[in-house]
């Protein structure tokens, strides 16, 4: 593969992966305007964010078997088309209930792009390069939280929140055209795979039973669910509590995203000296310290705007190490059913993220405590699962006398 083709492929896969995050981040500054137009509250508007996460979680379970059965491109085209139609529907939403349903449908469409891009990493690149490729994708994806809220803030002020969904519709169309023109056929459809419920469930169960999968998939998902709590709670904290403008909120969100992007690229360099497992454990320990301090300070009203931004920045830096490495380790044992494995991994991540987001939206409290409490709880649980799961991986590797992923690094 030439450097030019490599760069184009990473850019295209990153663009597909970023469609979902862009759909999440861009409309966040418009929460107050949406709440005003639809006669509701900012916290209730965040339910449309939770429905998006639920849609992505459910949709990935749907697309996983389809990607393995029909190849990567056909399900991708269908998903992107559904995304475009749902985005158009959001433009004309006149009630919160309608927006919640349309956001769910939009998520169902966008998750096809996410699942396909993750599966194609496993298709197109050697196993030992997966963590590096995921980190590069995070660099492309990282542009989304840097620019999406900022653009969304200015668009909302100048043209209204409806214009945000017009832009999202256009992005979906561009991804559809680019995928049709330049995306390679990376996988031969497996016609032996059945799409009946029982075989699909058995296929997913075979993935879940793999100790390396459930250890790192659930560890990564729980650690990453703190990000969804932050996304759901940030409009309330910055706009309502600290009285930051929509444009200012976009800039703060972009600044914080630098932590996630920068650390994911430092992770690529660290992989030259350390194993993925070591980086995950170290990042989680740091993450636990930060969220514990954040929680104690929030309860006692110690922190203002600057301190809150600094703590969130460090928290996101930790995620930049855990996410690429847990993703790579989760998918490493799979080749034939990588699509189902990537779908299940994404579904677990988004499902737990939806619960975290929903938990924040349920508290009618103008405080950071609900958000930070969820971030702390998920971090602790991730560390427990990692500690217990690593023992099962070692037991299985000893019993089967086969090398694990780390021997390939």
UniProtKB/TrEMBL annotation:
This is Bcr/CflA family drug resistance efflux transporter. The chain crosses the membrane at residues 45-64, 76-94, 100-121, 133-155, 161-183, 213-231, 251-271, 278-296, 302-322, 343-363, 369-388. The keyword Transport applies. It is found in: Cell membrane. The lineage of its organism: Bacteria, Pseudomonadati, Bacteroidota, Sphingobacteriia, Sphingobacteriales. Residues 6-394 form the Major facilitator superfamily (MFS) profile domain. It is a multi-pass membrane protein. InterPro entries: Efflux_drug-R_Bcr/CmlA, MFS, MFS_dom, MFS_trans_sf. Pfam families: MFS_1 (PF07690). Its main location: membrane. Keywords: Cell membrane, Membrane, Transmembrane, Transmembrane helix, Transport. GO terms for biological process: xenobiotic detoxification by transmembrane export across the plasma membrane. The keyword Membrane applies. One of its GO terms (cellular component) is plasma membrane. Gene3D superfamilies: Multidrug resistance protein D. Belongs to the major facilitator superfamily. Bcr/CmlA family. GO terms for molecular function: sodium:proton antiporter activity; xenobiotic transmembrane transporter activity.
